[in-house]
Specification:
mainly alpha; elongated; 85 residues
């Protein structure tokens, strides 16, 4: 029988379309524990929050990646149009 945490990981995998990396799962677990403690959430809420934190972690990483790509493109465009002395 699958635990609630295992089901949360499976649901996150379904939402992402790929299996979450073990390092991301550890990071998400620690963050979920912290959020639960700070907000005073009941233990049975952990799996629901954990699933969301896993997906959110990948979403934020993707947003940061795109932002970095855009920043680099802007730097390239500026250097291409700036006269070199």
């Amino acid at each position: 029988m699958m635990s609630a945490v295992s089901r949360a990981i499976s649901r996150a995998e379904e939402r992402l379309g790929f299996p979450p990396h073990e390092e991301v799962l550890e990071y998400a677990k620690k963050l979920t524990e912290q959020k639960s403690r700070v907000k005073g959430l009941p233990e049975d809420y952990f799996p629901l929050l954990y699933e969301d934190v896993i997906v959110e972690t990948y979403s934020m990483a993707f947003i940061n990646f795109i932002g970095e790509q855009n920043r680099r493109c802007q730097e390239c465009a500026r250097s291409a149009t700036t006269p070199h002395v």
